[in-house]
């Protein structure tokens, strides 16, 4: 009987003993025996996600990754989490994000599941097959021909923006131009995604969705740090922390906002049909009409809603911040600014006051203006941290570093964009570097991750490039722009998107032309 009692006690206590022993043993394994234990990084990142989560909460995640590489300057890789490694080398970009047989083995990590809402979008889908299907369906909608069909909508919103700028120019009153860039992109994405202007420019204040977007994206980023895959969002939504609950409620409100806006768009299309009207030929119409050329499938409403939600985030936030940096750096570098203005005056001798938005068909020939945009995106990519991919089950050797299977790996755009072995004087803004025949331009372009890399790079790159170039060219030709504080030095702060770390003002005056 005694033996039986002892046996029962052992059976009862064994699970508890194993549970108590499990975590210390796991920590010891991660610290000293894991295949990744030799990859440099603070000891705490080998055992905990907390440092990265704190950096995200403090709005400095990309800068935190930069600091890790600065601590280990001789290493091409650093450990950012127990199951995540970041790289800072051109070969890592090609290995992780590139085309080819090897690249096919690196799938999107579970981090992306948190960005799937009512369905998978081009951005969030982890399935290569599903991504290829979606890209087949909508790629023609982002062709140059389609781009020109969107231009009237871009011009209409730009006209409202110019009217507002004229008011500031007539008084010489200092104002926050980045704030107005954000209003412009809000209204423009409303036009292109939902077929209606939100009235942000006219009202002179942000619409509700802009704040909801920022908060819901922060919730998705925190969700992506959890280890529960597609259940990350649900698990985090149960956490009874006020800050997290605020983010989750913002996500729900934003998704409902997108639903109502998209339903309104479908209603507009139905109202046009009885009158023989043709639906608006904007980006969302391309998604609505898109058919898989192989199967004839169309996107259902939940999938369209997910694409619309993704489009609003990608277009509005990234476009406004890029125009901000271009304005800032061109004022800091008057010689570059004047060269662009001279090219514009030569190209548009009959439109020197830029009373109407300039046509993109001409502007896309100005290589210096495009290099200005690219250089800003190199130094200030909208998404600065790693876009994670997952190593294949058998593991992978990246830049000579072995990484086990099912580990998140990536290259932070902010870090590689300032890698001194790739870019000479990487912290100096110099658009002419993109024309330097002595530089390794191929490697520089490989390491430029402002729009991503490979088959998963941003499909809307041409759309963003169009309205950004049109806006900056029109402003340069129409106004003399000055920083209110000529000694201003802008830094960045991370709100998912890397934004300026402070507000600043410019002063506009109508340009005076010779003759």
TrEMBL record:
InterPro entries: Cyt_P450, Cyt_P450_CS, Cyt_P450_E_grp-IV, Cyt_P450_sf, Cytochrome_P450_monoxygenase. Heme binds at residue 458. Its cofactor is heme. GO terms for molecular function: heme binding; iron ion binding; monooxygenase activity; oxidoreductase activity, acting on paired donors, with incorporation or reduction of molecular oxygen. Keywords: Heme, Iron, Membrane, Metal-binding, Monooxygenase, Oxidoreductase, Transmembrane, Transmembrane helix. The chain crosses the membrane at residues 12-32. Belongs to the cytochrome P450 family. This is Cytochrome P450 oxidoreductase. It comes from Cladophialophora yegresii CBS 114405. The lineage of its organism: Eukaryota, Fungi, Dikarya, Ascomycota, Pezizomycotina.
């Amino acid at each position: 009987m005694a033996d039986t009692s002892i046996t029962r006690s052992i059976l009862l206590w064994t699970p508890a003993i194993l549970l108590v022993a499990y975590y210390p043993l796991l920590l010891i394994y991660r610290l000293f025996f894991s295949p990744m234990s030799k990859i440099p990084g603070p000891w705490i990142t080998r055992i905990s996600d907390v440092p990265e989560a704190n950096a995200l909460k403090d709005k400095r995640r990309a800068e935190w990754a930069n600091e890790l590489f600065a601590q280990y300057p001789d290493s091409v890789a650093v450990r950012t989490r127990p199951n995540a490694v970041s790289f800072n080398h051109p070969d890592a970009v090609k290995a992780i994000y590139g085309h080819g047989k090897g690249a096919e083995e690196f799938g999107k990590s579970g981090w992306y599941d948190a960005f799937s809402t009512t369905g998978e979008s081009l951005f969030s889908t982890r399935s290569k097959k599903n991504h290829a299907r979606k890209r087949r369906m909508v790629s023609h909608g982002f062709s140059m021909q389609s781009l020109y069909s969107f231009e009237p909508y871009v011009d209409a919103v730009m006209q409202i923006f110019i009217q507002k700028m004229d008011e500031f120019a007539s008084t010489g009153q200092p104002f926050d131009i980045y704030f107005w860039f954000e209003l412009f992109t809000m209204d423009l994405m409303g036009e292109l995604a939902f077929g209606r202007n939100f009235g942000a420019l006219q009202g002179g204040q942000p619409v509700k969705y802009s704040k909801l977007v920022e908060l819901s994206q922060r919730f998705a980023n925190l969700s992506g740090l959890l280890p529960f895959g597609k259940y990350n969002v649900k698990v985090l939504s149960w956490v009874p922390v006020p800050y997290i609950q605020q983010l989750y409620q913002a996500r729900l409100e934003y998704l409902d906002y997108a639903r109502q806006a998209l339903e309104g768009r479908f209603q507009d299309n139905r109202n046009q049909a009885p009158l023989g009207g043709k639906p608006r030929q904007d980006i969302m119409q391309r998604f609505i009409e898109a058919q898989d050329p192989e199967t004839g499938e169309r996107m259902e409403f939940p999938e369209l809603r997910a694409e619309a939600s993704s489009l609003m985030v990608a277009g509005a936030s990234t476009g406004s911040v890029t125009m901000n940096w271009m304005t800032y750096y061109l004022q800091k570098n008057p010689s570059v600014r004047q060269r662009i203005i001279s090219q514009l005056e030569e190209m548009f001798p009959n439109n020197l006051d830029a009373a109407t938005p300039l046509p993109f068909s001409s502007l896309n020939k100005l290589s210096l203006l495009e290099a200005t945009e690219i250089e800003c995106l190199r130094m200030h990519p909208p998404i600065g941290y790693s876009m994670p991919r997952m190593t294949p089950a058998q593991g992978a050797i990246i830049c000579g570093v072995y990484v086990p299977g099912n580990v998140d790996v990536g290259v932070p755009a902010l870090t590689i964009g300032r890698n001194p072995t790739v870019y000479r004087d990487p912290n100096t803004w110099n658009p002419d570097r993109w024309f330097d025949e002595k530089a390794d331009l191929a490697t520089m372009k490989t390491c430029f991750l402002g729009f991503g890399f490979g088959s998963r790079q941003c499909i809307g790159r041409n759309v963003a490039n169009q309205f950004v170039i049109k806006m900056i060219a029109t402003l340069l030709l129409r106004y003399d722009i000055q920083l209110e504080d000529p000694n201003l030095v802008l830094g960045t702060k991370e709100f998912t998107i890397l934004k300026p770390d402070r507000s600043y003002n410019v002063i506009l005056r109508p340009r005076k032309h010779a003759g």
